[in-house]
Structure formats: C-alpha cells, structure tokens
C-alpha cells in the first residue's frame, strides 16, 4: 500500500515501460540509478512522456511529471521536470513551489530569474522584486542575466512603471550584455513596451533593430512589424526549406515508405536518438521573449529547465496600465552593426 499522499490518483496517465532508455540523457539516467530498477523505469517513462507532450499538451505533460514526482520527489531532476511542466500549463503557484525546491536542493542561483517570473505571474510583486535583487547580486551566467533583466522589465510594466521598464532594458542594450541573440531579445522587449504605450514609430524602429540581430528568426518580428503597418524586409522572414516536411505546405504525392536496411534501424553507441529528452544540465535554453502581452519578462518556461524540444508557453501578463506614449531618445543607442560581442559565454 502506498504511503499517505503517494496514492495513484484516478486521472494519472498510463505509460508504456517499453521504451529506449537513451531518450533521456546520460546525466538524467545517472540520477535515476539510485532508485529500484522497476521504479526507475516508471519514473523514466513518465519523464519521457512529459518531455514529448510539453508543447502540444502541457496539462497532460504536467500530469506525467507529477506522476514521476510522486515516485521520486527527492531527485532534483524530477522536481525540475515538475516545475517546467507546471509552468507550461500555467500553474504558476505549483511551478514556483517546485522551482524553489530544486533551487534549494541544488544550490543553483540560475533558477532565480524563473522564480521571480513565477512570483510576478501570481501577483507577488514585492517578492519578485526581492528575488530580482538577489539575482543581481548572484553570479549568473550571461543568458540568465538577460532573463533576469527581461523579468524585471516585465514586472515594472505590470506595476505601471513603464519608464523604469524602458530604463532597465535600455541600460542592458547600451551595456551590450550578451551576444546577438540576447541583444535581439532585449530590443524586441523594448519595442514591445513602446508599442504597448502607443509609440508606433519607436516600436517599428526597435523591432527593425531586433530583426537585424535575430538571424535564427526565433522571434515573431515580421508579424509584429506587419501588425504595425510597417514594411518587412525579406531577410526578416525564415525561408521555407522544401525538404522540411513541417514547413513544406504544398500538397505532394506521398512517397512510398521504405524499409530500413539491415543495421540502420538503431542508433550506434551511446548517441541520443532523435527526439531525446534533455535537461538544463545538458542543454541551456533561451526562451521566447514578450512583455506587454505575453510572458512575465519574456522569460519563457525552460529558462532554467529542461529542453523538451521547444519552449513552453509563457505566462499571461496582468492588464496593461493606462499610459500615454513613452518618449525615449533612441538615436544614442548602439545600432546592431556596432554591437560588440565581448561576452565569452554563449547565449545558447
């Protein structure tokens, strides 16, 4: 009979125990090795399911992660998965509890930005400000420093302090924190705030500046420019790779399926198979930004967490305060072509 509080709930999703262990990375498998073999298999199955579902069905992914947590709550990697899926499912109170737990278990300050983000999402602004101050005093990596700045700017916006939000972002832009991808996100957030304040011209200027740095087309800059009535440069749009079946939209005759040749069906050695689930300790992730009408600070769910093949949806911001157009001097901010990449730490 399970211990009190560990009973399997009626809505716990089923999992198959017939899976490839290598769908989880070696560090994750190593952390689960201390569990009894049968229990470890159940936990692994739920973690894999959570990782595969986090984008398409975050609620179900969260139920899988909670199932893993009921079986192995003392393992940081399990608590991290529970935090990330709760965040993706917009259960920010649960995500906050889990992120605090994993930060306490690991002693890792890199979780401070997303902890502040969760506090912001549930309206605990004073707590979020304290966490942000703690983050500024910690030795965060460059990616997490940028996340903290985005969270702080989003929080100031929620509190009706748009001038301070713009100042925070502008200071980071002028200080040239991070490489091009981080600077693109900071400029995007700046433009987002200007658009929210009614400064259409300023927003277009700053979305253009962000687009010149967003070489990977990870931001929806083209769509934002179109929504503001601006002409979108061709290189701001991702090109369609006709070999990519997810992007190729023209109807085609289906190709006949081919059986794999002998010896080609399985991955060799310890290489991770396609679709493998990785965690923060393996692959840092830089989520999508958004301030005025998307995530708190644009931190994005897997800020400090596991990469399940994409980034979770971001928290909904509080209602925008009534404010007139923000007036800023944009001419003195360095243009993208002058961006110096002095940071030695990669963004991604």
From TrEMBL:
<feature type="compositionally biased region" description="Low complexity">
    <location>
        <begin position="320"/>
        <end position="329"/>
    </location>
</feature>
<feature type="region of interest" description="Disordered">
    <location>
        <begin position="248"/>
        <end position="348"/>
    </location>
</feature>
<feature type="compositionally biased region" description="Low complexity">
    <location>
        <begin position="288"/>
        <end position="312"/>
    </location>
</feature>
<protein>
    <submittedName>
        <fullName>Tetratricopeptide-like helical domain</fullName>
    </submittedName>
</protein>
<dbReference type="InterPro" id="IPR011990">
    <property type="entry name" value="TPR-like_helical_dom_sf"/>
</dbReference>
<feature type="compositionally biased region" description="Acidic residues">
    <location>
        <begin position="248"/>
        <end position="273"/>
    </location>
</feature>
């Amino acid at each position: 009979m399970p211990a009190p509080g560990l009973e399997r709930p009626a809505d716990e999703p089923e999992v198959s125990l017939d899976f490839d262990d290598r769908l989880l990375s070696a560090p994750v498998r190593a952390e689960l090795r201390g569990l009894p073999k049968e229990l470890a298999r159940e936990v692994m199955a739920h973690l894999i399911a959570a990782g595969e579902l986090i984008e398409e069905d975050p609620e179900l992914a969260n139920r899988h992660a909670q199932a893993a947590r009921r079986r192995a709550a003392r393992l940081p990697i399990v608590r991290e998965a529970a935090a990330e899926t709760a965040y993706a499912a917009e259960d920010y109170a649960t995500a906050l509890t889990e992120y605090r737990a994993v930060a306490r278990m690991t002693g890792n300050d890199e979780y401070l930005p997303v902890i502040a983000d969760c506090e912001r999402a549930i309206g605990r602004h004073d707590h979020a400000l304290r966490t942000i101050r703690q983050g500024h005093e910690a030795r965060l990596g460059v990616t997490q420093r940028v996340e903290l700045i985005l969270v702080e700017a989003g929080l100031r916006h929620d509190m009706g302090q748009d001038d301070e939000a713009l100042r925070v972002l502008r200071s980071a832009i002028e200080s040239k924190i991070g490489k091009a991808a981080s600077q693109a996100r900071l400029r995007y957030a700046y433009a987002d705030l200007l658009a929210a304040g009614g400064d259409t011209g300023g927003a277009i200027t700053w979305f253009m500046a962000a687009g010149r740095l967003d070489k990977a087309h990870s931001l929806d800059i083209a769509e934002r420019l179109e929504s503001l009535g601006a002409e979108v440069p061709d290189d701001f749009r991702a090109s369609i790779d006709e070999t990519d079946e997810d992007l190729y939209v023209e109807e085609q005759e289906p190709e006949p399926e081919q059986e794999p040749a002998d010896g080609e069906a399985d991955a060799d050695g310890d290489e991770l198979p396609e679709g493998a689930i990785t965690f923060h300790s393996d692959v840092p992730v830089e989520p999508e930004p958004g301030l005025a009408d998307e995530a708190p600070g644009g931190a994005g769910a897997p800020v400090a967490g596991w990469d399940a093949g994409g980034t979770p949806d971001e928290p909904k911001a509080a209602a925008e305060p009534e404010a007139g157009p923000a007036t800023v001097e944009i001419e003195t901010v360095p243009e993208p072509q002058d961006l110096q990449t002095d940071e030695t730490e990669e963004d991604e």
